[in-house]
TrEMBL record:
InterPro entries given in the database record: Isochorismatase-like_dom, Isochorismatase-like_hydrls, Isochorismatase-like_sf
Taxonomy of the source species: Bacteria, Bacillati, Actinomycetota, Actinomycetes, Mycobacteriales
Domain of life according to the entry: Bacteria
PANTHER family cross-referenced by the UniProt entry: FAMILY HYDROLASE, PUTATIVE (AFU_ORTHOLOGUE AFUA_2G08700)-RELATED, PEROXYUREIDOACRYLATE/UREIDOACRYLATE AMIDOHYDROLASE-RELATED
Coiled-coil zones: none
EC number: 3.5.1.110
Source species: Gordonia insulae
Protein name: Peroxyureidoacrylate/ureidoacrylate amidohydrolase RutB
GO molecular function: hydrolase activity
Pfam family membership, one: Isochorismatase
Length: 235
């Protein structure tokens, strides 16, 4: 099978070179997804994010079988909060701030249980985990250097939340010259209308900063690619 596949996407079909494409999984952290976590204490409906888990588990498995570079991100801060700008720290209700005790440890603090990725998507050995202090995965991280080192030109962007960290990362990536496919059933928002409009905004105006596509065709293409080149699989 050729390394390049054409997938149905919005606003147009897109040719993807699977050898220079990476899967980016944004902030699938317990603090955002689990009942009792930070996201829920802010009054959000976490079931809106949990619907992403099933499709994303399948996409991740297909990407691993195909030997694709997989990058996980986690939003969070150092225990002394020195990397958290006051403008971010002081926002919201005082009882629910970053660094405060939460159901799963200090909220969004590196090393705490709630800061880590949900069990279903635990990174495998060798997969890249980017700890980011901001909403975008490029800001104050090594992500750009890692992608350059691997010769990556296209990204499958997944994770949460669609209108915040997924959007910010996709916009950052687009400005850096990456072609981004935001995988529509593998991204989630607490707010159904933000999910819908967030996806529409990406593909509007001829793909103003990317493409959107559901995971089905991508999983099929990755599975076929893995079958054609079994040595590429990552265990
Ligand atoms: C938010 C994120 N929503 N990962 N973080 O604060 O989207």
């Amino acid at each position: 099978m050729a390394d390049t596949v054409t997938i149905s996407a919005q606003p147009d079909d897109l040719a993807l070179d699977l050898t220079t494409t990476a899967l980016v999984i944004i902030d699938m952290q317990r603090d955002f997804l689990l009942p009792g976590g930070f996201g829920e204490t802010l009054g959000n409906d976490v079931t809106q994010l949990q619907r992403v888990v099933g499709p994303l588990v399948e996409l991740l498995a297909a990407a691993r079988r195909a030997g694709m570079l997989v990058i996980h991100t986690r939003e969070g801060h150092l225990p002394d909060l020195s990397d958290c700008p006051p403008a971010k720290l002081n926002r919201g209700a005082p009882s629910k701030r970053i660094g405060d005790p939460g159901a799963f440890g200090r909220i969004l603090i590196r090393g705490e249980y709630g800061h880590d990725i949900i069990d279903e998507l635990t990174p495998s050995d060798g997969e890249v985990v980017i700890d980011k202090p901001g909403k975008g995965a490029f800001y104050a991280t090594d992500l750009g250097a890692i992608l350059a080192e691997h010769g990556i030109t296209q990204l499958l962007v997944t994770g949460v939340t669609t209108e915040v960290c997924v959007h910010t990362t996709t916009r950052e990536a687009n400005d850096r010259g990456y072609e981004c496919v935001v995988v529509s059933d593998c991204v989630g928002s607490y707010f159904p209308e933000f999910q819908r409009v967030g996806l529409e905004m990406i593909a509007a105006q001829g793909g103003i900063f990317g493409w959107t596509a559901p995971s089905g065709e991508l999983i099929a293409a990755l599975t076929e690619h893995a079958a054609a080149s079994p040595s590429s699989a990552v265990s």
